[in-house]
Specification:
The complex is a heterodimer of chains A (about 325) and B (about 500).
Chain A (H helix, E strand, L loop, with lengths): L1 H27 L1 H16 L6 H26 L7 H18 L2 H25 L4 H20 L12 H8 L1 E2 L2 E2 H19 L1 H11 L1 H6 L4 H27 L10 H11 L11 H20 L4 H25 L1
Antiparallel strand pairs in A: 1-2
Helix pairs in contact in A: 2-13, 3-8, 3-11, 3-12, 3-13, 4-5, 4-6, 4-11, 5-6, 5-11, 7-11, 8-9, 9-11, 12-13, 12-14
Chain B lengths: L5 E12 L2 E12 L3 E6 L5 H8 L7 E6 L2 E3 L4 H6 L2 E4 L11 H5 L6 E4 L3 E4 L1 H13 L16 H14 L4 E5 L7 H16 L3 E5 L3 H7 L2 E6 L2 E7 L5 H9 L17 E7 L9 E6 L3 E5 L6 H9 L7 E5 L2 E3 L4 H6 L2 E4 L13 H6 L3 H4 E2 L2 E2 L1 H15 L15 H14 L4 E5 L7 H16 L3 E6 L2 H7 L2 E6 L2 E7 L7 H8 L2
Helix pairs in contact in B: 4-5, 13-14
Classes of the chains: A mainly alpha (about 325), B alpha/beta (about 500).
């Protein structure tokens, strides 16, 4: 009797295990499945969705957000949060436009990225040194940086008398192998930062700091430095995104980037990163970005009223947060 | 004494989680006015049984009878309503609320202002709280905030809350794990009074002395099964260990063949917050130094300062005979010093793999320019998992999914990677069972036998005596004495007097 029960138990166990692995694998690739479903649905709903022009459009729209999401993934995995990226996009774009009108294109672009990194560094220092919560810190810099941008531009786009230099605008228009420069750039940055996050000792430190700050500290990791570096990357990435957007818009727009922070956070969480820190994959954040962009694009193509689009995107954000909780509970 | 009817009866209860059978056909019964102790190694099924009784889990099979009547508890609410109250190790309190508010938590007496507006009746609330606490000999103020209380006082508040809920069966899960000697005695006195009032008690503990002393009946669990059920007078410590582990107590005694070498870590303690009179702390290779102190006596803080996790150092440091200063854990590790905190959750990143947790303090050593030498990490991790017998033997497994004992081994493994010379261990055996404790003691002994040095803290005086070659005693943050094995004063009584327990 007993041995029979034991054997049965063993069979059930291995079956349960196999089922568990399959289920976990499916849950693990949820974002990819969701994206695939969304694309199939969009392709069936409107024929224009699969047209080369529209696909190109999607990639262009995703490019700016993808770069912001790369930085956001770093901050969120390191256990932080950054609401200021939307304002930094506008700030960096305006600084870049302004500086390049005074000097040259290269210095201008560098100044834009540096301005973003500086705001990120400020966020990091306030969070780690003054121990202000990331939410409040970056809420503060979000408002402050937007105000600063409006101040230095007087609320008007930065274009100069004869427009921005042609070589700068070429970045926003040009293409290589039929793909826009603006799409190549996030691919390049994704490769570099994916490797930094997932293959280097620095990347392990980021995960450890976000996963358990005290344990990382006691293991000799300089957690404050790691967290500050994550905020700095995030600011720098928002700076790059701002410069890109300026070249596409052919001007520095002081009101650009509004709500980008929320879209970026939503994309990263959709991609499975935990808001508690210590968990996430860069490629999944990219999938999250594509979900957000494809959703907006197909709603547009289906002529859904823009007010309803906001409602839909809001619902997706809440669903993503709920999925985050479900995942946490599964442990 | 009240009548001795059967209060609770657990019949043939089984419970599985995924592939593991946590409880297998477990039966036991508790009489009113009796203490029924529950003992077993970590993972033997004690917590699962408690959670089923408390309504957190539901049994797969079997039944629970309360006063002869079959009952089901779909949630903790129903279990509490039936008078089954669990006092877990991690107590649920509202730290910012007062003692009186916590005793009456969720059942605050109300009154109507002007006959209509509902408001909390503070006077009655205080009366209720005072009445419940009076039975427990509580000496604090009713208006004190919970976070101003000691651990023992908070425990009394939680028990008072249980009693005001008309507890018929009180389940205490390792209640003395964080108590001082005197506080534990007070708890035992309270248990006696509750017995006299006819309350049934299930008492879970790893401490064999307590089990022998308190048990009216004792159930020993191993691998989810009841391996023995004994009555009062049938219980002795050696037999309990054999039943729990299937082995003898012999292994717990350490061999006395340590060979001391050169100075490993020294500290001339001159900080007045630690020592009125400058004292010296010194540990040589091959030696174990015990930092003895009761709970809250500052041993943990002292150890953290030695490691550089908190500053300043308690005095000038010397590593391997040379003056050294480490301003952060990173420097301390570079100086060959490792630290194991008292709680596993402070040491491990639960979401990371076993492998990543092991290399965590040694990332620099495995960095080759801008990448990691993954091959070298894999080889070393595989070897350490073999040596320390970490199960399952899967380096990519999430550390949070491992059992407590295996998590502890992962923490040790990481300090064996970097060839650390001095290990600082904070309460390495607190809250773990006899067998796991013996394994930790063996690890400590092996570490010093191979030329390492250990400084460890403990509030368990017999353990300090057993493991140390030299002891420094701390009381209220101050060094109050030191002794060395072989000296006339090296005994439990002297140490206990020094500590004021």
């Amino acid at each position: 009797m007993a041995s029979l029960g034991g054997a049965e138990g063993a069979v059930q166990t291995s079956e349960a295990k196999a089922r568990g692995t399959l289920l976990r694998g499916l849950l693990d690739q949820m974002p990819l499945l969701a994206l695939a479903l969304l694309m199939v649905f969009s392709a069936l709903a409107t024929e224009r969705f699969l047209s080369p022009m529209n696909l190109n459009n999607i990639l262009l729209q995703a490019s700016v957000m993808a770069i912001i999401a790369i930085g956001m993934t770093f901050v969120i995995i390191a256990g932080g949060f950054d609401l200021s990226v939307g304002s930094v996009v506008a700030f960096a774009g305006c600084v870049a436009a302004w500086v390049m009108l005074e000097t040259n294109v290269v210095v201008g672009m560098a100044a834009g990225v540096a301005a973003g990194a500086a705001i990120g560094l400020l966020n990091g220092l306030v969070v780690t040194r003054l121990k202000v919560s990331p939410f409040i810190t970056t809420l503060g810099t979000m408002v402050m940086v937007r105000g600063l941008t409006l101040l230095i531009t007087d609320g008007r786009p930065v274009v100069g008398e004869y427009g921005l230099p042609d070589s700068f605008l070429e970045i926003g228009r040009g293409a290589f192998l039929g793909v826009h420069y603006l799409v190549w750039l996030p691919l390049l940055l994704f490769a570099v930062f994916g490797w930094l996050l997932h293959a280097t000792a620095y990347g392990r430190r980021v995960f450890a700091t976000g996963g358990n700050r005290e344990a990382a500290y006691l293991a000799g990791i300089q957690v404050d430095r790691v967290a500050t570096s994550a905020y700095t990357w995030c600011g720098a990435m928002a700076g790059v995104a701002g410069v890109m957007l300026a070249s596409r818009l052919q001007s520095g727009q002081p009101t650009a980037g509004e709500f980008y922070e929320l879209t970026a956070i939503a994309a990263v969480v959709l991609g499975g990163a935990s808001l508690k820190g210590g968990e996430g994959k860069l490629y999944k954040s990219m999938i999250g970005v594509l979900i957000m962009v494809v959703l907006a694009n197909s709603l547009n193509l289906m002529n859904v009223h823009s007010y309803w689009q906001r409602v839909a995107i809001g619902v997706v954000i809440v669903l993503a947060a709920a999925a985050d909780q479900l995942r946490a509970r599964r442990k | 004494m009240g009548h001795c009817g059967e209060l609770l009866s657990v019949r043939n209860v089984s419970k599985g989680f995924g592939g593991t059978q946590a409880l297998d056909d477990v039966s036991l019964s508790v009489r009113a006015g009796q203490v029924h102790t529950l003992i077993g190694e970590n993972g033997a099924g004690k917590s699962t049984l408690i959670k089923i009784l408390g309504g957190v889990h539901r049994a797969d099979a079997g039944e629970i009878l309360l006063e002869g009547e079959a009952r089901r508890f779909p949630s903790p609410r129903e279990a509490q309503a039936a008078g089954i109250i669990v006092i877990p190790q991690e107590m649920r309190i509202v730290p910012a609320a007062t003692v009186a508010e916590n005793v009456t938590l969720g059942a605050w007496p109300e009154r109507r202002v002007f006959g209509m507006l509902p408001a909390i009746d503070h006077r009655r609330m205080r009366e209720h709280a005072a009445a419940a606490l009076a039975r427990l000999d509580f000496q604090g103020r009713l208006d004190a905030r919970m976070d101003e209380l000691t651990f023992a006082e908070r425990q009394l508040v939680v028990i008072a809350r249980a009693l005001s809920q008309k507890a018929r069966l009180l389940i205490l899960d390792e209640p003395t794990a964080s108590l001082e000697h005197r506080e534990a005695e007070r708890l035992f006195g309270m248990i006696e009074r509750l017995k006299a009032e006819g309350v049934g008690i299930i008492y879970v503990s790893h401490r064999l002395d307590e089990i022998v002393r308190l048990s009216d009946a004792c159930t020993v669990l191993r691998d989810g099964r009841v391996v023995a059920c004994c009555g009062r007078g049938e219980i002795d410590k050696e037999q309990l260990v054999r039943l729990m582990t299937g082995r003898d107590l012999e292994e717990l005694h350490r061999p006395h063949d340590r060979v001391f070498g050169e100075a490993a870590l020294g500290c001339r303690i001159d900080d007045e917050s630690v020592a009125d009179v400058p004292a010296t702390l010194a540990v040589r290779t091959g030696e174990v130094l015990g930092l003895a102190g009761l709970l809250g006596s500052g041993t943990t803080e002292f150890l953290r300062r030695l490691f550089g996790a908190d500053l300043p150092h308690p005095g000038d440091l010397a590593v391997a005979g040379r003056p050294a200063a480490h301003a952060s854990p990173g420097h301390a590790i570079a100086n060959g010093i490792g630290y194991v905190p008292g709680e596993r959750r402070l040491a491990l990143v639960m979401d990371l793999s076993v492998r990543d947790n092991i290399v965590l303090p040694n990332l620099r050593a495995f960095s080759r320019g801008w990448r990691m030498d993954e091959g070298a990490v894999d080889r070393l991790v595989a070897e350490l998992m073999e040596v320390l017998d970490i199960r399952p033997r899967d380096p990519s497994r999430r550390v949070g999914d491992l059992s407590g004992g295996n998590q502890q081994k992962v923490i040790f493994a990481r300090w064996l990677v970097g060839k650390v010379g001095v290990l600082l261990l904070d309460e390495p055996t607190q809250g773990i069972d006899v067998a796991a404790k013996a394994r930790i003691h063996k690890l400590m002994h092996d570490f010093v036998a191979e030329g390492g040095a250990v400084i460890f803290t403990s509030s368990e005086i017999p353990e300090v005596m057993l493991m140390s070659d030299a002891v420094i005693a701390l009381r209220k943050g101050q060094v109050v004495g030191s002794m060395r094995r072989g000296g006339d004063d090296y005994n439990e009584r002297t140490l206990r007097e020094a500590l004021g327990g």
